[in-house]
Amino acid sequence: MLNGVDILGVWVQSGPVHNVVDHIDERVEQRDATRVAFLNAHLSNVCSGNEALRNRLGQFLVLNDGVGVDIARRVLHGRAFPENLNGTDFVTAYLDRTSHDLRLFLLGARPDVVEKAGAIVQERWPRHTVVGTHNGFLDAADEASLRRTIAAARPDLILVGMGNPRQERWIADNVPGVCLCAMAVGAWFDFITGTVPRAPGWIRRARLEWIYRLCIEPRRLASRYLVGNLLFLARLGLARVRLGRFQEG
């Protein structure tokens, strides 16, 4: 059973990895429309000024990703999440542990990266079947054709790596229309192919992977991690003040 809490306007569910895998598996078996996203500090900031996106995430199974939302739960609800369910590790864990042999469609990243990711996924998880790949650079003319392609491939699960919030919007627009289940996987295709290196294990265990990524891609991620993290903490501080006033009242 999963537990849910409100993190700055987004309902986030959590639990041990095996429980979350079992929960998604049950939904897949029952053919329930399932949209999976991962709330980190960056997506929380994006949601803060976008009510429509917050409302759409209400239709998702939103999992906790990273130290920022863990701090938020401590501040707002008195305790941390049971486990860090960051998308990069959870997608890998799900493909490892799911009880289903899945038909997979990979959507996102550059053409060469997603094609390489498809080959790696097929080799690493031979019990699953990669039924198609498509890059994440879409225009309006591509959308209808892509939907037809995915529907014809009949995937059980689409892994969508377009970055926030494009991947969440795509899933909201297309599940259950073209597939009953999709996960927003962020940079997973880049990581699994080695296009972008992951932090060493000890850095990930220390919950400092964001610093490593900032050092690797400073121009692209400086605003997200330096300015964005400060903005997230400021929003969290204001929420804690309002909570204190409410409790006093």
What is the gist of this entry?
The protein is of the alpha/beta class. Helix content is 55%, strand content 16%.
Number of domains: 1
Q: What is the number of helices?
A: 12
- Strand content range: 15-25%
Share of helix, binned = 55-70%
Biggest β-sheet, characterized?
6 strands, parallel
Order of helices and strands: EEHEHHEHHEHEHEHEHHHH
| Neighbour order of strands in the largest sheet | 4-3-8-7-5-6
Give the class from helix and strand content and strand pairing.
Answer: alpha/beta
> What average pLDDT do the residues reach?
94
Shape: globular
Radius of gyration: 18 Å
Q: Classify the fold: give the CATH topology.
A: Rossmann fold
**CATH architect. name:** 3-Layer(aba) Sandwich
Kindly, what is the distance between the CA atoms of the first and last residues, rounded to a whole number of angstroms?
A: 33 Å
- What is the name of the CATH class? Alpha Beta
Give the tally of β-strands: 8
| Low-pLDDT segments, ≥5 res | none
Task: Itemize the secondary structure elements and their pairings.
Blueprint: E1 3-7, E2 10-14, H1 17-29, E3 34-39, H2 41-48, H3 51-57, E4 61-64, H4 67-77, H5 87-97, E5 103-108, H6 111-124, E6 129-134, H7 140-153, E7 157-161, H8 166-174, E8 181-184, H9 188-193, H10 201-205, H11 209-216, H12 218-248
Parallel strand pairs: 3-4, 3-8, 5-6, 5-7, 7-8
Antiparallel strand pairs: 1-2
List keywords for this structure.
alpha/beta, 6-stranded parallel β-sheet, 12 helices, two-stranded antiparallel ribbon, Rossmann fold, 8 strands, 16% strand
